[in-house]
Design goal:
It contains four helices and no strands. It has about 80 residues and is mostly helical. It is globular. It comes from Blautia pseudococcoides.
């Protein structure tokens, strides 16, 4: 899956959790979207469900920007199809 495809899926999931619809690869979940720990936990659960992966707690805080999630999922969720 291409980065643009992951971005679209991530935008959809972020919108479902937060109501925020426009993201860029540089969007920071905490700084730009002001997500709290519950929002982050809900978003991680949504990523896990959609991409059929388990994200260990030690990896969660490495995923601070949309770009980080795209790169992580490209490594962990292959082969994933929309």
């Amino acid at each position: 899956m291409r980065g643009e495809d992951f971005l679209s899926v991530i935008e959809e999931l972020v919108y479902q959790v937060t109501g925020i619809s426009e993201l860029t690869p540089d969007t920071d979940f905490i700084r730009d979207l002001a997500l709290n720990s519950l929002d982050v936990a809900n978003l991680v659960c949504a990523f896990e469900d959609r991409f059929q992966v388990e994200i260990p707690v030690r990896d969660v805080w490495k995923l601070s920007q949309v770009r980080d999630v795209i790169e992580y999922m490209q490594k962990k969720a292959l082969p994933y199809s929309l």
